[in-house]
Amino acid sequence: MKNAGVSFFFLALSIMLFNSCDKGSGSLSTKPVTSLSNDYYITLKVDGVSQASYLNAAILYISTNSIQIVGQLPGNQSVNLLIDDLKTGVFNIAANNTILSYNATPANTDTFIGTIGTVTITGLTTDTVTGTFQFTATNFNNNATKTISNGIFNLKYTRQ
Domain span at residue 34? Predict the structure, then answer.
């Protein structure tokens, strides 16, 4: 199930990022799924280095009650969270169907999949989700690891 979930996650991420581009001007679209406001954010540390996303997206998939959160980081890096059975509480990678990843390159060729870690949903309203996350991720192509720590998010989400 986890391999199918990872494949679905990256397929959905690719579609979402592709569709977020405005084909006419070459700039990013301001569709409701995308948050450029300082009120909505993702911050984290990658191997101890502080990062803040400059473009965020959060989608609640109503049919599965799962949420996908994506943050675009400087240098074309990204962080991705997929949480099933959305509610407030702690979601563990090992125990729940939760997928956390970090992409070091825009083409997803240097992807690190979370092997140990948690997401904690601390707040959930009809259109916002807040929480924290931390995980250790492995690049299964070369066995390199990344430590993602002090992750915090406050995002407006859309329903699909």
Answer: 2-159
